[in-house]
Structures are given as structure tokens and as C-alpha cells.
Amino acid sequence: MCRVLEVSPSGYYAWRKRPVSDRECGDAALKERIVKIFTTSRGRYGAPRVHQALRRNGIRIARKRVARLMRQCSLRARTPCRRVRTTDSNHRHSVARNLLDRQFTASAAHQKWTSDITYIATHEGWLYLAVVIDLFSRRVVGWSMSQQIDEVLVRQAIAMALSGKPTNCDLLLHSDQGSQYAATGIGQLDLPRYSRHRSTGVSFPRRYVMAAQKI
């Protein structure tokens, strides 16, 4: 080992017998306090805020030393997650009344669907995901992903869900009042073959449209 480390055997054994320095003892005690502060903050405190907490407790220490000890303990503050707005209710599209009225249960499949949009952070930017869920089975029956949050994203998810839906059954589709769902382009889906009810002019407005008419 001495040969690999390129040190003399006498120097190695002298190092092993050397007592722990006051600096190392101080660092060990500080690490315990730093870990406790970091844990109490649920990982939100970086070196500056940990340094402030130590000073409030009467411990005078340089911030660079705190940063060094945190690196040695592999402590790194969590970065806040940026929020992305996926619902834009400020639009001029018509909206339908809330037919679901918080009745989130169904007695059979393909009676009630809900849909929403979420976002996923990637190295190349935000990726948007639209899903359609059957309230009876709680299964995802349709989904679509895109770098753009628009009506096309929603239309593709609904189209996938409709492709697996049996004909001649009533269906209520529920969503928020976002512009992606209220957009008139959603009504361009080929809906008549999926429903016994008239579906011409369906614009899927509010609370999940396909709303005023059941599809």
C-alpha cells in the first residue's frame, strides 16, 4: 500500500499514531449540527441558510467552511420545482355546465370519463401529457404526449380512448374549463359512430365537454 501511495512506511505509521487535530474534532461536531439542521429543513437549506441557522445558535463559523462540510456529507439543498400552468380558463370558447357534479363513481365501464393535462420535466424542456381515465375501472383508456399544450394534445388522447369504446353506449366526459378542452377543434372528432345520441356540433366545453350532449 505504501508503494501504491508513494509514501514511506515510517511516514505512514507516524500518520496512524498521530492524534486527531482540534480542527478535525471541530469539523466532526459541526457536521452533526449541520446534518441536524439540514434534516429539520427537509433538505431545503443550502449552505447560506445552514450558516444563518448556526449563527442564530451562537456558532461563529465561515460560510465557506459550512459549504465544505456539507459537500463532505453529500448534503445538497433540493431545488424548488417550477410550477407549470396547464389550465387556461381565460378564453372565449363556450363552456358546458357541470353534468358530473362530483359524482366520481360509475356502475359500469364507459359511462363516465375524466381527463386532465399534466407536465413532465425532461432535459429538453417540458413534456405535456393528456390522459383520459374511466371512473369505473380507474384505468387510463387514452393518452397523448407532446411538447405543445394545445387542443391537438387533448384530441389525440380522446381519439385513443374512443377507439376502444364500444358503440351504442352513453358516455359523459368531464374535464376542467381549460381552453384546450373548450376549443372548437375538439368537436371535429368523428363522434357519431360512437354514440346513439346526436353528436354534431359537440364542442366539448366545460367540465368535460362532450358535455351538453352525451357522446
Summarize the model shown.
The chain has 215 residues and is an alpha+beta fold. It is 32% helix and 14% strand. It has a 4-stranded mixed beta sheet.
Verbal overview:
This protein has a four-stranded mixed sheet. With 215 residues, it is an alpha+beta fold. Strand 2 (125-134) and strand 3 (140-146) form a beta hairpin. The protein is 32% helix and 14% strand. The longest helix has 19 residues, at 22-40. The protein has two domains: 2-72, no CATH class; 82-215, Nucleotidyltransferase, domain 5.
Rg calculated over all Cα atoms: 30 Å
Low-confidence stretches: 190-215
Binned strand content? 5-15%
Architecture of the largest domain, CATH level 2?
2-Layer Sandwich
Number of strands: 4
Q: What is the succession of H and E elements?
A: HHHHHEEEHEH
Biggest sheet, spatial arrangement of strands: 3-2-1-4
Short key terms for the protein model shown above:
215 residues, alpha+beta, Nucleotidyltransferase, domain 5, 2 domains, four-stranded mixed β-sheet, 7 helices, 4 strands, 32% helix, elongated, disordered C terminus
Structural topology:
Elements: H1 2-5, H2 9-17, H3 22-40, H4 47-56, H5 63-72, E1 112-122, E2 125-134, E3 140-146, H6 151-163, E4 172-174, H7 179-182
Parallel strand pairs: 1-4
Antiparallel strand pairs: 1-2, 2-3
Helix pairs in contact: 4-5
